[in-house]
Write a structure and sequence with these properties.
There is one protein chain. Helix 3 runs parallel beside helix 13. The chain is mostly helical and about 475 residues long. It has a two-stranded antiparallel ribbon. It has two domains: about 375 residues, Up-down Bundle (Sodium/glucose cotransporter), CATH 1.20.1730.10; about 80 residues, no CATH class. The chain is built from 20 helices and two strands.
Amino acid sequence: MINIPLIIVLLYIAALFVISVFAKHLAKGSEGYVLAGRKLTTPLVAVSITGLAIGGASTIGVAEQAYSVGLAAGWYNVAWGAGAIAMGLFAAGKYRELNVTTVPEMFEKFYDVKGRAIAVASQITILLVTTSMQYLAGGAILASMLPSVFTLRTGMVTSALVFIGITFVGGMWSSGLSNILNVALIYLGIGIATVLTVSGQGGIASIAAQVPQEVPYFHFVDGLGWVAIASWFAVMVTQCFSAQGVVQIACGAKDSKTARNGFVIGGLMMLPIGFLAALMGIAGKAMFPSMSATLALPQMIMSLNPYIAGVTLAALWAADVSTAGTLLLGSATLFSQDIYKRFLNPECDDKKLMRVTKIAVMALGALTFALALSVSGIVKTLLIGLSLTTAFTIVFLFTVFFPGMARKSSAFYTTLVGIIGLVLWQFVPAIRIFPHVIYLEWIICLATFLVVPLFDSQRIQYPAGKKVVSESVTFGIKA
C-alpha cells in the first residue's frame, strides 16, 4: 500500500534541498552566507522571523498543552508575535544601523572584550539547547505519525540531516527562501486540518459538550490564568530584543526600514497559528479523551484523508525545519565571528571565515544532536535559559536609547549578574518569590546596569562624528 503521507514528506524534503542549492549561488562570501549579504527584503524578513518563531513548541507543544488547559495555550504564539512586533517597532532598525553581525560583537564595539566573551558563551549555550529541542520535536513528529517508518531515534536522525544539510548548503539565504515554503505549508496544513477536524466532530459546540466541563476549554484565559500568560509575554518580548537568531535576521535586512516592517508583519502573521493549534488539541481531547496528549494528536491527524494528513505532517515538521535552520546558523555565526575570528585567527580572510562557518554548522549540528539524545526536560530548560537574554536586552536598550548611562564594564557585569541569578533560581528555592525567573532577571540586571556607573567612570565610545545630546540620545538622534 502506498504511504501517501511519507511521499508528501519526502517531496517536501526534496523541495528544501532544491531551494538550498539555488540559495548557494546567492550566498557569496561570509556575509552572504550568514547575513544573506544584508539583502533580505521585507517579505523575507517577515517569513524568516515567523519561521523562527513557529517551531515545535508553537505547534505540537501548544496543541498538547491545549489538550489539558484549552484555548489559553494559544497565547504562547501571541506572546511571540508581540515580541516580534515590539522588536520591529523599537529595535530591529537600530540593529541594522549598527552594522554588526552578532550581539557579542555589539558588546565589544561599545563596551569591552570581557563583555563580548561572556556574551558569546551565554548566547551560544542558549542556541545549542534550543536547537537540540528542535531535533527532539522533529523526531517525535515523524515517529508518532509514521510509526511504521520512523522510531524516535531515526526520526531525530532524519531531522538532523535535513536541518544541518540545508543550513550548510545555503546559509541565511537558504533559511529565508525555504521559509516561504515552510510558512505557507504551516498555515495551509494546520489551517485545513483544524477546519476538517472540528467540522468532522460536529463543530465547536459538539466538541465543547464532549470535553470535561470542569476545565474551561473554550475560555481564552482561565485555563492558565493571566499570571502564566504574562510570564510568556515577558520572556518572549525580552528574548526578541537580543537573542542571536532574532537579531541576525534584523541584521540581514537590506535597510532599517525593511527590518522594522518585516518584523511587524511577521509578528502579525504569528498571532492566529497558536489558537489553531490549540483547537486541534481540544479536538484531540474530545476524540480521544483517555489517551495522552502526545498520542492523541497524531492519532487524530492521521485519521484524516491521507493527503490532508500528509500535508499536515509536513507542516508540523516544517515548523521544526524553519526554526532549527536559523538557530543552527546563529550558533555557527557566533563561533566563527566571536570565537574563531576574534580570538583564534584575527587575520583570517573572508574565504577561510566562510569555510570555518560551514564547518561550524556541521560540528555544532552534530553536538546539538548528541545533546538531544542525552538531555531531558529540555523545554523547561529552554524557557529558563531564554530569561538570560534579559541582560542582553537591557544592555542593548541603554546602548541605543540612553548611552550616557552606559559604562565600559556595564555589559560584562550585567550579564554576569544575570547568569548568577539563573543559577540561584535553580538551586536556591528560597529566592523564588516571583511567578517566573524572568521578573527576577529584570530586577537584578537593571539594578546592576544602573549601579555600575558608581564605580566605573569610563563611558562607552560613540561612532565618529556623532555626539550625545543629554543622556538619552541614539547616535546623535534624540530618543
